[in-house]
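Data card: per-record layout.
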Amino acid sequence: MRLTQWPIFLASLLLLFRAGNAVSESQEHPVKSRVTLVLTADMPNISDSRTGRYANLQTLVQQQRQRSDTTFFVFGGGSIGPSALSSFDRGSHIIDILNSIEPDVMGVTKREFSFYEDELSLRSYEAAFPLVASNVTDSRVERSPDGLRTSILIEKEQITLGVISVLHERVIEEYQLSDISITPPQKAILEESRRLRKQGADMILLHYSYPFPFINTMLNKRIIDVAFITDSRLDENELVNTTRHPNTMVLTQQGTAIVASFEKNTAWQATSYKELSLEDLPVDSELNEQLIEYESRLSRLLNIQIGEWQTDISTTRKEVRSQENPFANFVVDSMKRYANTDIALINGGSIRGNKQYRAGTPITRQDIATEIPFRANVVTLDVSGAQVIQALEEGLSQYQNLKGGFPHVSGMSYSFDPSAASFHRIKSVTINGNPIDKLKIYTLATSNFLANGGDGYYALKNAQSKNVLSIRPPQISDLVMQTIVNQYTVMPAVDGRILNIVEGGR
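The structure for this 506-residue chain is written out next.
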């Protein structure tokens, strides 16, 4: 070998040596895959100080995307409705706002069906991101509803995330979805997971909104790698207790977001996990302008004073779903008076404002549209006393979970034992001061939602419908607004029509 060739030879040996060491080091210490997940959900009302924090969310998402190229933002739905503005545009403004934030994917929950499946399909075509519902079938065409995906693959920086989202079958009865069927979620997850793995998914995230008991097993068997749950049915402690697994991300409160980092050697493991309050983050000015524009549009539509509160009023979620409530009494009394029936019944879940009003403050149309955002109509039924009792039992069957079925009544009173087993909680019922007669037929004013079996009120679904009072029966929100206009000063109260025998009169 010539002397002049030695430097080239030595350099080649050095390169080979370094390459060999690099291979050896990579075998002993393989490069880890890293992923950051930003997760949030349940933001239906842009006017609400807790659930309308989209401008803060934008800041969080942008911060995390700047820190890591492998940041996936998964929006967990629960936001198409209900709200005052959604009652006008069926949730289009929520999709428009999310388009500005650019989620990688959105999971579908029952609230996305607030305006039924066809409206959800329209929203999916407005979205610049995929909407996933893995176990929902449109029975009219025997496939997923138009515009929805059964799963999705998203690739960033050589990491491919697969996303699955499943619903509980109760969405059909709660939202009266006559054209929808639900595949057993466990079956759907297995099928979609196999398909996503074959297509190259490095990580599979499951989004769900009901605490299915088999999720931990699927995580342990690596059928899925990460689970993300939001479920407003359960309180925070119960929700956390039913989802104990290091790779389960639990959104325990509205108005928060999860930022979680994962690393993979042989399996994905969470290395950090924070649930952040969105209100603690700076507001993104550009997105805030978008929110202000929508709020201004809503104000132009509804910011008209129609009355004045004469007493303090609270419509917090816990109160309207667990005890007699002044505002609920006012609503159901208005329905009974309008329909001229023996009794009236409405579910606590139809009241959604979650607000407090001080005596002396004005009542606007926006207040009532916020409190009663669903487009439910007043209907009249003939019901037996036995059906009334059964309906009350159905409404109280999920009392411990603050379910929306909690029954508010007019023209009658009832006592119940919340500690008793479901469907054995009613202790007494009186109508116009007399014990209820199980065989007698009473006239009942209620919502078309409950009359069709919504929120599990099957007893009413089997009741005989009376002739309608008008060709176009009024929406309950419009009826309440007109009642307020007629009397202007409003002073609803509790009068002992609902008695919790354990808590002494609540």
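Known properties of this structure: The longest strand covers residues 268-277. Confidence is low (pLDDT under 50) at residues 1-31.

See the next section for split statistics.
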